[in-house]
Target: Ribosomal protein L11 methyltransferase
Amino acid sequence: MPWIQLRVNTTELKAEQVSDMLMGWGAQAVSFLDAHDTPIYEPMPGEVIYWTNTIVVGLFDAEHPMAEVISQLQNVSFFKHGLEYKLEQLEDKDWEREWMDNFHPIKFGERLWVCPSWRDIPDPTAVNVMLDPGLAFGTGTHPTTALCMQWLDQVIQPDQTVVDFGCGSGILGIAALKLGAKRVVGIDIDPQAIEASGKNAERNNVAGQIELYLPKDQPKLEADVVVANILAGPLADLKNIISAYVKPGGLLALSGILTSQAHVVMAAYADEFTFDPIVEQEEWVRLTARKVEL
Model:
């Protein structure tokens, strides 16, 4: 089906109201974009944050009477002094197929490959993670995930217990098991992530070694390795919870952190951990550390 995209410039105070209006006037979907490339970080559960200058994007059927939608917007009180908008035709594509066609096998470190479940394995002798992320974050294409995968390839030893905090698609925990870990505990606030992780674990024949929990059900344990690829704000706020999972002398990796945020996150953990040099990729960093043995 061909589509038309309407982009409306507004403010954070009006973004949700504009979204509701577009949905009421026939938009099939609505999303939000930053008008000025201002960074915005992961909100806490239940929190919604918009940019100061927000673009509300409505997706409409190409046959929809867009002149009526524009006229209705122009009559909205806060747009009467000027409505900034743009209409764009979108190419008619099978968007799911487009995404699948552009997700290729990726190598991390010396041993590890992540392979889309619908593609051939490039190296059958390597450690291969077969992945279908579904709606959950984590394909290996984002620098934060890539940094964590490279680290796991270096540090995982046989029989270790690993906690994947913010497991998303399950990519990190499954990689740890494929690299030799004995047990993985995955935790995520999103039920869709728990579902995706479970399906990917089955796909990789490690379902019996991974335990998946929502935060309210998370167990108490101390692990050899803990990896948390979320974002800087939650990493700092959840320091006590995350650090409690690391046994004395155990290893910790934190990612989802911009270079400018690294010192804040390190400061939050400095009382219990000794940090390695920061590793950076495309303005994102990975922090790794060892927990002090008392």
In short: The two ends are 63 Å apart (CA to CA). Confidence is low (pLDDT under 50) at residues 36-51. The chain has two domains: 3-92, 99-291.
